[in-house]
Structures are given as structure tokens and as C-alpha cells.
Specification:
The complex is a heterodimer. By secondary structure, chain A is of the alpha+beta class. Chain A has 16 helices and 36 strands. Chain A has five domains: 134 residues, Rossmann fold (3-Layer(aba) Sandwich); 131 residues, no CATH class; 89 residues, no CATH class; 112 residues, 2-Layer Sandwich (Dna Ligase, domain 1), CATH 3.30.1490; 69 residues, no CATH class. In chain B, the strands form four sheets. A seven-stranded antiparallel beta sheet of chain B has the order 2-1-5-4-3-6-7, with helices on both faces. The radius of gyration of chain B is 25 Å and the shape is globular. Classes of the chains: A alpha+beta, B alpha+beta.
Chain lengths: 685, 588
């Protein structure tokens, strides 16, 4: 997507991915869009890239030959992992193979205690021997994670030096630099994931850079991280574990931007595409972050991923609940005679039955077509012709007949079941984390999001739903409306009543200095820098921390008291109870440093208060709505001809190239000046 | 209630869509209970190791939905929750009331596993129960963490016979203080109890929201359908199992007081109407920590049957009714008052291993060879500098049994037990202990064409005086191999290893440690499947390269010859394998 900062004009190019040379697709798209927009490479200010290269290399097992160095006696940390089985009743289960084979894992004599005191000095001679052995084994990358290095990184730092002395400029990932947080397996796993993908990601990004520079493109090259911020190619290549969820993060960032531009600080993003639906949460203008994430984990139908099936990382990842319910998800009747939807998908080939490419399995898209919600002659702007009769036949054969119901009932059932799975996902991201969805605006996008968003909002009593212009490319939009972001943290592990506030301030100052330096390297002027502080706290004895944001300014005794009382409130919200008399512990200090980059301004559409939508009316068609008891006549509008100020009464359908917005009976959609459709419950039916 | 949802044969058709929506929402409610419990708990055992479970029961005390945490608990819930509720008195349950129980002879298991049952009221009417079980790190009794070789239940800790802990949403202080007074680690345990309360509150809220939405009659109709659905699917799964009677015998190695093995026997009879698990012939109960309650034995049998069915089958009362257990009272599989029960899970999980052994000839591709099949507790505690009594408990993984087409994974929990390890850094931060090593034990696998998983070693060192309990097993015989596969290694528990004072400890013993003492656990590897000389030499070579199997063992047991780099010498290997099967298994 190309945004013209002068005109606000947006140009979009989509190219097929090129699995044999993934960077080729990105370069090709960049050059093609420049050509089409009549812009020279030199005119570009910056380029932002979202990529799944990091995740894919793990999932496909195409990782670098990596070595692992840890404290003597603990070399099997990666093999043992959490000692659990990822599926409970499966005697034929597999444990994910470690990213580093055992013969490349080494323990070196050294030991710290939990306070960071040296119990055993580092055996430097042994480190040198290990270094030489790793050199002989021709590893490309090395991960280092010693016990308790989050309190005292000295031994890790020394090992880093020795490895550099012995092996030159080999790729090194050091746990105390990457994720200095306690619980060794999780820190080690984060470090190893980083090490294993670093050469792969670096080659990929360097490939892009080289080719773009050859085209005389001088713009700053940035890549999206899992936390929703961007990093320079250079920084990203060093810490690729920060970009494993680069793609999906962009959608939530776009949602937060859209919501903010319409005055909503709290929003739920709902991104539904061909294979999955992803729900994220924006609170107070910022995407909610999690640090409880596994790369390459097996998806589970209803409730996220199966514990222990992937590789845990402890870097900030935008909190998303992803479920196997997309347009291509297959509906089936199980052996107990119950209708189910997903998690299997018809994919792009053969695709839904209605594509006419030989697919026999009914999908969510087939159901939407049979219900009249999609236009068979205007899917992807007419690029793909849909066959209603094939969709009907698939639903009839696989669902309606086995269940003894008619095709329309079955099609509606498929949608209702998919919606119920999405409602559960939405509850997971909101209610389960202590938020009431009714306080949020829902942002529906992705090719299929606008088809389902209204119903989802109705199920949860969400008052406002926003469908952005061109929902199919909202994700890409997120890439262009974010900031440069570097995250830092330090583990403190001290009781709040026994800590000097000045000490906390010192820590934050130190983290801030790192952030400032990094942003300076990125070329951000001091005036464009912003620093957000957060404290992770818990009751003494608990194991899960809750993040408490701090107001800006120096940290003193009042700030500390406020943070502690905010923690009690956060605990109450998250778990329904608090224990204000119990001592509170400060676990981690976290700093997010942000460097503003210029954001495109949204283009406005013609505005005409009280405008009639009639000029955009394409006609009417019969559309099924369960709440109306069957097929009813719905108006069909052309989104591109709508003007700001128009109000569309449901039941109605709004069609555009990359998506279809469904407005249910009883709801209305108002078109705002940016072309967004804002859905609310109508005053009367 | 026999027609499937959606068929027109019923007078009032069940809406298959609404069915799926309500079923998902109920499962989700129990998952939310689990999250509330885990996140707000205090003890490492609950919050990190996830030694807990949650479920929803309907008004008729049938289990309807459960969160996927520890299968051992889920199976025993079915027995415990209805009995505890009835014993307390259904009509005594007011809105917001919760009842606490751990009574082993009232349907419970061992005393550490305490269940909190909450009544769910909707518009003043009792509509069901939420239940959550947590393994509390200490419940009093003869040793810290309440594990040890006790001789009667009264030595094991506080026995709670279904009493009201929460009345109308408020903790009953008298009861709470009385229970806590029996317990060493009061702060942690109090925090874990509060987390259990939060869990039930969350579950009740979700269930009520569902009833708000669909109305009570409709909700109950679909709850029935959920049970009926599982019943129907269980029936069709049962038809896929080979009918017949299958038997196996085995034993728990010793009871901690005598060296006499504790004989176990299972007879599994499969037919289309259900599966009967009969433990007749198992040893009489002992005044020793090897007795399983009926609920524990039931749980083992339920787990075994579930593991043989479609992975997608939702478990509820409609499944459990096909699990029929005959366990003679007074035996180690159904102990009677006042036998000690703390080691009941050791016996329980061994019964599980035996069930799969019994079925191995009939279902070779569905089962696994012998696994660790013990809980393998390490419990310790002592007085901290500040005067507080701390307690710590964890259970250690071992090798998994090989499968007909796959090796057994290294270092995992087995069967109904799936608790995580306690991170070394978290443990050392919170408790006065140092973990000296945590690694795989080379050459511990049960050799086979598919080999068993490796066991692990964990060494604990204590800077101060500490009471330590080993409650485990497998120090006499390793997990069984199948079809020519060899058994996994035996476990060992060693006091001050690699010193002149080193000595092997019994698998069920309590010690007073002096500052600097070390306890070392080395757990069993899993059993092998098919003869080891049939193993692909390349796979043997990878194990040699990785240091999981020694070159000597590769040669003597797998009959594979590797060079100094671990590469297979194909010609020499072929000659060796051809020369016949001599002396195989000499060091297994």
C-alpha cells in the first residue's frame, strides 16, 4: 500500500507470495506500486514491512544451525522444557523437538544465587573450549542463557566477549540482553528462538534492502514487530524474536488508529480473513500486550493454543485470540450428529464449494452466499464468480441432509456456530481479562469481518461497530500508522514496602537511556521521543504479575503508593478479588520508548449532512436473517458512491471490492467523513 | 432422550446450532474458572505447576463440562462431588454457599487435593454446582508438604468432611481459621483457598449469564442433550474397540515399610455396553502409603478408556457411565478407613499402565509401553529465618513409553498427571533450596525398535535444616517393554551422591537433612517397543551423537557400531546384527 502524504491518496498492489524467494514478492510489490503511482523510489519517506518470515522459519523447521550455552548441570533445559504433554488424552502425542540438538548444548561451570551473588566463578577456560567446539561444529548462531542472569548479567556478558574473541562476528543472542526476566526455561526459549531465526531473518531483510537500494530507494526501511511498533531493518535483524507476530499485530494497530480518529480510546479489533478470525483489544488507545506466547503452537478450536505444543517466548506480543473460523472454514456434522465449523479450512485450493474449483465441503463463505449476504457476481469486485448452486449442494449434502433440516436453516446454523466461536474469542479477550465488551467499540475488518461484525456486536451488546473503508487492506494500513518502538525491561523482585522509590527511578533512567540511544540511532529527534513506564506487580507469593501503567514524570513515594493501589484495582478487575492487606511485590520494570514517524492523514469523502443513500443504491435482494425469521428484502448499496452523512437502515448490504458489510434489521449504518460505516442500534425497528 | 439433536423424530426438535453454542459456552466457563484459579493462586504447585482442575455439574450432580487441566482429578470428581454434596445436604446449600471437602472415605482422594464446591443459584433457584480442586502444598500431618510414609489417615493431615467454607459469598472465618491452624504454610494455602473461591465465583457467573439468555427450561434441556450427545458418541466409539477380556498383572515396588511388592491385577472386559475394569486379585490394603481410594482407581480407568477414544469426544457424565469399576473394598485399589491414602496416586497411575499393558495385544497401535507411572513426589519444608514454616512440593517427570511407531518422548509426565516443573529460578527465589542439576539421564531409556523416553535427574541442596520426603516408586523394576522391547531403567533416590556418605534412599522415606545435604532423584526411562536390534541404525546414531545413548550400549543392546563421531559403521553393524541375538539387554 502506498500513501501519498501530500494528497492522502492510497494505492494498493497485491502480488502472490513467492515461497522460493520470499523477499522477491515484497520487492516486486514495492516497485510495481511506485510505477503505478508515478512515484520515483527516491521520493519515498519510509517503507514499512510486515512479515511472517520469522514464524514460518520455526514452523517449517528452517532454522539456523544453533548452539546453546548455559550453566553446568542444566544443558537439557530445552529438552525437558516444561515436562508436560501438549494433549492430555493422546497416547501418541509428540513433544516439540528442541530447536538446538542436544550435542550442540553445553553447560559451563559458573553459578549465581537468586540474588545474583556469585557462588561459583565462571570457568573461562571451559567457555573457550566450548567456543572452539561450536566453531568446529560450524554453528551459525549461539544462544546464551545462564541461571539467574536476569539479576546479574556479568557472566553472560563475559561469555559473550569470549565467544566474540574466539569466533569473530558470529550471531550471538544473550538472554540478559533480550529478555532479562526470571524463569529460566522461558528466558532460554526466547533467546534460542531469537538465535535460531536470526541468520534467516537477517538474510531475508538484507536481501530486500540490497534490492531496494539498487533501485535507488533511499527511504528508511522499517519492519513491524509483534508489539505493534516498528524497528529499523538493522535492529530487527538483531532481535527477530520481537517480530514473530509481525503480520497480525498490524491489524490491531490499524484498529486503534481508526478508533482514536473517531474518538474511541477503547476498542476491540475483529479481523476475519480466509482461514482464521483474530480478536484483539485496544485499551486507552494502546493495543493490549501479552508476554505469554508460544511460537508454532498448535491451534485449538475454541480457546486459543494448546499449552506446551510450541516454543514459548517472553517478548511483548499484541494480545490476540485467534480461532480457526474464517471464510474458508469447513462446516461438518460430527459422529454425534452435531453441526461443527472449523478448524479445518478449504484454503485457497480448492477453496469454498462456490468457487467452482472442485471443493465439495461447505464453508462459511458458502453459507453467507446461500443466505444472500454475498453477491455472486461481485465477489472481490467480480474477479471471482461465485456459484450459488454449488454452495447449496455442498450444504445440502454435508449438513442439511444429515441433520434433517433445510438448506437455509443449515446455512444459518453454520453462521451462528461460527459466530458463537467468535463470541467466545471476543469474551476471552475482554471479559476474561477483566473488561466489559459493552465499553468498547468493535472495529470489523478483513475480507469477512464486516459480514459478521454487526451480529457479533449484537450478541455482546456492543453499542458501536466501525467498518473502515477497504476493510481488506486495513491490516496493511496498520503498518503505516505506528511508531518506532523499543521495549526494555528489568526484573526487580522486591517488596513494594521495602523498596526505595529512588532506586526504581534509577532503573527507569537507565532503561530510558537505552531507549533514547536506540531511537537516536534510528534518527528520531529528541522532540519525537516518548517513553511509557510500566510496573509488573503481584502479591508476594503469587506467580503471575499484572502490569500497572505509570503516569509520566519522576518516580517518587506518591507514585509508588498510587501504583500499589492501582495494582489492587487491577487485581480486582482481572480476578474478581483483591487483598489490600497483603504485601505487594514489584517484579519487573518496563519501558516502552516510542519514536514518532509521520502518519498519513485519512482521506475524506464528500460530505453532505442528512444525505440520502439513494444515490448509492444498487438495488435490493433477498437476504436471510434469523431474527426476521427468514429471507427478507434488503437494500444493496455501492460503498464507493456513499457520501458522508448518509444513514443506511438495516436490513442492508454494502458492497465494495474487498468486502461486504451486512447491516442487520434493527441496526443502522451512518457514513462518516472518512467513509467509515458506523453501525448502531436503530432508534426504532 | 435417545434421538440425536436435529432429527425430526423428537416431538420438540433440538436445535443443533443452539446445542453447539451452549456446549461451547459451558466449556468456556470452566476454562475461565481454571484461569481465575491459576492466575491468583500463591503456591508454585497451583500457579505454575497447575496441579488443579475445574468442572461444572448440573442439578442432578452429573458432570457436564470440565476444563482441561489434570485428568486424574477430573475422573475422581465424578465420584467425590456428588457424594460430598449429598453428605452436606443439597437443601442446605444457599445462594453463594461453597463447601470444602477432602475426605478420602467420602469419595475423595488424598488429603492434599481439596475440592471446593459452589452452589450455582439462578433467581434463587439451585441450578447446578461448580467445583474446583487444588492440590494444596501442605495440609498438616506428619511431614512438611504432607507427604510421607504414614500408617493411617490421621497422620496425613486435616480431614475436611464437606463443611461450609463460604456462606452467601463470604468466607466463614471460624472454619477457615480452624482449617488453616492445621496447616504449615498458612499464607500460601490461604491464598490458594481464596483463588479457589474466585474460581467458583467466576464459573457461577458464566453459568447464570447463559441461563439469563436462554431461560432455565431451555438451558436444562440442552444440558441433557450435552450428556446425551456424549453418550451417543461414546457408544459408537465403544463399537470400535475389540470385544473381549484382557488381563495384566504388575506391582508397586514396595510400600515403604516392607520390601514386599504390592501386587496389582486388572481385568478389562470390553463390550458394546461399556468397559468393566476389575482389580480383583490386587493386594490387600497396607498400613503404608500405597492405598488408592475408589475415586482414584475410577479415575485411572476413566483416563484409560478416554485415551482409546476419538480425541474430539467431550467428556461428561455421558462418558463416565460407561466406565464400570469393580475394586474390592479393603484392597489397595479401594482402601477403607483408616488406611493412609497419601500414596494413592502412585498406585492409581500404575493401574493405568497395567490397563494399557492388558490391552497391548488387542490394540498394539493405540497404546504405549510402560511409562514412568508414578507421581514421584519431592516434598520438603522447614522453618525460615523469619520464623515462617515453608513447604514445597513438586513431582518429577520420567520417560514415556514407546509407541508402535514412535519413540517415547523424554522427560514428560504420564497418564492422568500433567503438572509442569517448577522453574529453578522461581524455586530458588522463593524457597531455601538450591537445584544443582536438572538433566536427562543417558542410557535410561527402555531399548526397542521404538525406544522409551529418557528419565531425568534433579539434585536438591539445602542451606539449612530441612525435612525432606521422597514419595515415589520404581526403584526395583523399570517400566515394562512390549513385544520384545526392553524395560526402562529403574529410578534411584540418593542421599549426598558422589560423596563418601552417599546412600540409596527408599522410594518412600522422610529424612531430616543438615545444612549442605543433597538429595538426588534419577527417574525411570520409558519402556521400549519391539526388539532393539530392529531399530534403524541411523536413529541409534543420532542418540549416540546426542549423548542420550552411549556407544557401548548402542553396540551391546541395539547391536549398532558407531565410529568416534557417532556415525554408523554399516558393514560392521550388519555383521553384528547377523551374528545372532546374544547377550542382549545385559545393561538394560
Amino acid at each position: 500500500m502506498l500513501v501519498n502524504e501530500e494528497t492522502g491518496g492510497i494505492e494498493i498492489v497485491k502480488v502472490p507470495s513467492t515461497p522460493s524467494d520470499p523477499s522477491g514478492g515484497f520487492v516486486e510489490a514495492t516497485l510495481r506500486i511506485l510505477k503505478r503511482s508515478d512515484v520515483t523510489p527516491g521520493q519515498l519517506a519510509f517503507v514499512v514491512h510486515g512479515t511472517t518470515v520469522a514464524t514460518n522459519s520455526i514452523i517449517e523447521g528452517k532454522v539456523a544451525r544453533t548452539g546453546f550455552v548455559t550453566t553446568d548441570g542444566f544443558r537439557d533445559m530445552l529438552e525437558i522444557a516444561r515436562q508436560i504433554r501438549p494433549s492430555l488424552y493422546d497416547l501418541q502425542f509428540d513433544k516439540p523437538p528442541p530447536l538446538v540438538p542436544r550435542y550442540l548444548c553445553f553447560g559451563v561451570p559458573e553459578r549465581l544465587d537468586a540474588r545474583g551473588k556469585v557462588l561459583k566463578e565462571l570457568d573461562e577456560e571451559r567457555v573457550r573450549e566450548v567456543a572452539r567446539e561450536l566453531g568446529r561444529q560450524k554453528v551459525e548462531s549461539i544462544a546464551v542463557c545462564l541461571l539467574h542472569s536476569y539479576v546479574n548479567p556479568a557472566h553472560e556478558a563475559r561469555i559473550k566477549q569470549i565467544l566474540q574473541e574466539e569466533l569473530g562476528d558470529i550471531s550471538l543472542s544473550i538472554s540478559s540482553e533480550l529478555a532479562p526476566e526470571f524463569r529460566e526455561y522461558f528466558r532460554a526459549s526466547t533467546t534460542v528462538v531469537n538465535a535460531a531465526i536470526r541468520p534467516v531473518v537477517a538474510r531475508y531483510l538484507q536481501g530486500i534492502e540490497k534490492r531496494l537500494r539498487a533501485e535507488e530507494l533511499t527511504a528508511e526501511l522499517l519492519v513491524m514487530q509483534s508489539n505493534g511498533g516498528v524497528l529499523t531493518f538493522e535492529a530487527a535483524a538483531e532481535r527477530p524474536v520481537f517480530m514473530v507476530e509481525s503480520g497480525p499485530a498490524a491489524g490491531v494497530i490499524a484498529a486503534s488508529y481508526l478508533a482514536a480518529s473517531l474518538g474511541h480510546k477503547d476498542a476491540i479489533s475483529f479481523d476475519m480473513g480466509g482461514t482464521t478470525a483474530k480478536v484483539g483489544l485496544v485499551q486507552d488507545g494502546r493495543a493490549r500486550i501479552t508476554r505469554d506466547y508460544e511460537v508454532g503452537a498448535a491451534a485449538r478450536a475454541g480457546t486459543g493454543s494448546a499449552r506446551g505444543s510450541g516454543y514459548p517466548i517472553r517478548t511483548p506480543v499484541i494480545d490476540l485470540v485467534e480461532i480457526g473460523a474464517g471464510g474458508g472454514s469447513i462446516a461438518w456434522v460430527d459422529s454425534g450428529g452435531v453441526l461443527r465449523v472449523g478448524p479445518h479450512s478449504a484454503g485457497a485450493d480448492p477453496g469454498p464449494a462456490c468457487y467452482g474449483q472442485g471443493g465439495k465441503e461447505p464453508t462459511i463463505t458458502d453459507a453467507n452466499l446461500v443466505l444472500g449476504r454475498l453477491n455472486p457476481d461481485y465477489f472481490l469486485g467480480g474477479e471471482v464468480k461465485l456459484h450459488v448452486e454449488l454452495a447449496r449442494a455442498a450444504i445440502e449434502n454435508r449438513c442439511a441432509r444429515p441433520l434433517g433440516i433445510d438448506v437455509l436453516q443449515a446455512a444459518n446454523g453454520i453462521i451462528e456456530i461460527a459466530n458463537s466461536a467468535m463470541v467466545n474469542a471476543l469474551r476471552l479477550i475482554s471479559v476474561q481479562r477483566g473488561y466489559d465488551p459493552r465499553d468498547f467499540a468493535l472495529i470489523g475488518f478483513g475480507g469477512a469481518g464486516p459480514v459478521h461484525a454487526n451480529r457479533l456486536a449484537a450478541e455482546n451488546d456492543i453499542p458501536t461497530t466501525i467498518i473502515p473503508m477497504s476493510p481488506g487492506i486495513t491490516c496493511a494500513m496498520g503498518l503505516l500508522v505506528t511508531d518506532l518502538q523499543h521495549d526494555y525491561s528489568a526484573t526487580l523482585l522486591r517488596r513494594a514496602d521495602a523498596v526505595e522509590p529512588a532506586r526504581i527511578e534509577e532503573h527507569f533512567k537507565r532503561l530510558e537511556a537505552s531507549g533514547r540511544a536506540a531511537l537516536k540511532r534510528d534518527g528520531v529527534p529528541a522532540s519525537g521521543m516518548k517513553f511509557l513506564r510500566l510496573i509488573d506487580m503481584r502479591y508476594v507469593g503469587q506467580s503471575y504479575e499484572l502490569p500497572v501503567p505509570l503516569a509520566s514524570g519522576a518516580f517518587g513515594a506518591t507514585r509508588l503508593d498510587k501504583a500499589v493501589s492501582d495494582f489492587h484495582a487491577a487485581h480486582e478487575r482481572a480476578y474478581g478479588h483483591a487483598a489490600p492487606a497483603e504485601p505487594v511485590e514489584i517484579v519487573n520494570l518496563r519501558l516502552t520508548s516510542l519514536g514518532a514517524i509521520q502518519r498519513p492523514t485519512l482521506r475524506e469523502i464528500p460530505n453532505q449532512p442528512g444525505a440520502s443513500p439513494a444515490t448509492a443504491l444498487k438495488g435490493t435482494r433477498q437476504v436471510y436473517f434469523a431474527e426476521s425469521g427468514g429471507m427478507v428484502k434488503a437494500s444493496v448499496y455501492d460503498r464507493y458512491r456513499l457520501v458522508a452523512g448518509a444513514v443506511l437502515k438495516g436490513p442492508a448490504i454494502v458492497e465494495e471490492m474487498d468486502s461486504t458489510t451486512v447491516i442487520h434489521p434493527g441496526y443502522q449504518g451512518s457514513v462518516d467523513r472518512f467513509g467509515n460505516i458506523v453501525l448502531t442500534r436503530g432508534r426504532s425497528r | 432422550m435417545t434421538a440425536p439433536p436435529g432429527r425430526r423424530t423428537r416431538k420438540r426438535a433440538t436445535d443443533p446450532i443452539r446445542f453447539e453454542v451452549i456446549r461451547n459456552a459451558l466449556t468456556q466457563a470452566t476454562e475461565e474458572m481454571a484461569i481465575a484459579l491459576r492466575r491468583s493462586a500463591y503456591s508454585t504447585n497451583v500457579k505454575t505447576r497447575q496441579d488443579f482442575s475445574c468442572a461444572f455439574f448440573d442439578r442432578d450432580l452429573r458432570v457436564i463440562a470440565q476444563a482441561f487441566t489434570q485428568p486424574v482429578h477430573l475422573g475422581s470428581f465424578v465420584e467425590h462431588v456428588p457424594r460430598a454434596v449429598r453428605r452436606f445436604g443439597i437443601d442446605k446449600f444457599g445462594p453463594g454457599d461453597m463447601v470444602l471437602s477432602n475426605d478420602p472415605y467420602g469419595g475423595g482422594v488424598h488429603l492434599n487435593d481439596i475440592t471446593l464446591i459452589g452452589a450455582v443459584h439462578w433467581q434463587g433457584q439451585l441450578v447446578g454446582y461448580t467445583a474446583c480442586l487444588a492440590h494444596h502444598v501442605d495440609v498438616g500431618g506428619g511431614a512438611p508438604a504432607s507427604v510421607g510414609a504414614f500408617q493411617e489417615v490421621f497422620q496425613e493431615g486435616v480431614i475436611i468432611p464437606a463443611v461450609r467454607l463460604v456462606r452467601a459469598g463470604k468466607i466463614v472465618d471460624d472454619v477457615f481459621r480452624l482449617v488453616l491452624a492445621q496447616i504449615r504454610s498458612k499464607r500460601e494455602t490461604a491464598g490458594d483457598f481464596r483463588a479457589q473461591v474466585a474460581s467458583n465465583v467466576t464459573g457461577a457467573k458464566r453459568v447464570c449469564e447463559l441461563i439469563d439468555r436462554y431461560g432455565l427450561p431451555e438451558f436444562e434441556r440442552y444440558v441433557n442433550e450435552i450428556v446425551e450427545y456424549t453418550r451417543r458418541r461414546t457408544r459408537s466409539e465403544l463399537k470400535k474397540l475389540p470385544p473381549g477380556t484382557y488381563e495384566a498383572e504388575g506391582f508397586v515396588d514396595n510400600d515403604g515399610f516392607t520390601d514386599e511388592v504390592v501386587r496389582l491385577k486388572v481385568k478389562v472386559t470390553v463390550d458394546a455396553s461399556g468397559v468393566v475394569f476389575d482389580t480383583t486379585g490386587s493386594a490387600r490394603q497396607r498400613r503404608a502409603p500405597v492405598n488408592s481410594t475408589f475415586a482414584q482407581t475410577f479415575s485411572a480407568c476413566a483416563y484409560a478408556l478416554r485415551a482409546l477414544m476419538d480425541k474430539d469426544l467431550p467428556v461428561n457424565a455421558g462418558f463416565y457411565e460407561f466406565v464400570k469399576v469393580i475394586a474390592p473394598p479393603g484392597s489397595v485399589t479401594n482402601a477403607v478407613h483408616p488406611a493412609p491414602v497419601v500414596g494413592g496416586w502412585e498406585t492409581h497411575v500404575r493401574v493405568n499402565d497395567l490397563i494399557f499393558k492388558a490391552l497391548s495385544a488387542a490394540l498394539p497401535d493405540a497404546i504405549c509401553a510402560g511409562t514412568k507411572a508414578m507421581q514421584c513426589h519431592a516434598g520438603f519444608g522447614g522453618i525460615q529465618a523469619e520464623g515462617d514454616y515453608y513447604c514445597f512440593l513438586e513431582t518429577l517427570a520420567g520417560g514415556y513409553g514407546a509407541r508402535s511407531r514412535k519413540d517415547g518422548p523424554d522427560a514428560v509426565q504420564s497418564h492422568g498427571q500433567n503438572t509442569e516443573n517448577a522453574p529453578v529460578e522461581e524455586t530458588e527465589t522463593n524457597y531455601p533450596v538450591r537445584i544443582l542439576r536438572y538433566e536427562l539421564v543417558a542410557d535410561s531409556e527402555g531399548p526397542g525398535r521404538q525406544r522409551g523416553g529418557l528419565g531425568l535427574r534433579r539434585d536438591y541442596q539445602f542451606p539449612g535444616e530441612t525435612t525432606f520426603t521422597v514419595l515415589a516408586d520404581r526403584d526395583r523394576a523399570g517400566p515394562h517393554g512390549l513385544f520384545g522391547g526392553l524395560p526402562g531403567s529403574v529410578s534411584s533416590y540418593v542421599f549426598n551422591p558422589d560423596t563418601s556418605s552417599a546412600r540409596a534412599l527408599g522410594s518412600k522415606s522422610t529424612l531430616q537433612l543438615q545444612p549442605g545435604d543433597v538429595i538426588s532423584y534419577r527417574t525411570s526411562g520409558g519402556g521400549g517397543f519391539y526388539p532393539p536390534e530392529k531399530r534403524d541404525p541411523e536413529l541409534v546414531s543420532i542418540d549416540v551423537r546426542d549423548g542420550k545413548v552411549s556407544a557401548a550400549r548402542a553396540r551391546s543392546v541395539y547391536r549398532v557400531i558407531t565410529d568416534s563421531t557417532g556415525k554408523v559403521d554399516a558393514a560392521a553393524t550388519a555383521r553384528l546384527r547377523k551374528s545372532g541375538r546374544r547377550a542382549r539387554g545385559q545393561d538394560a
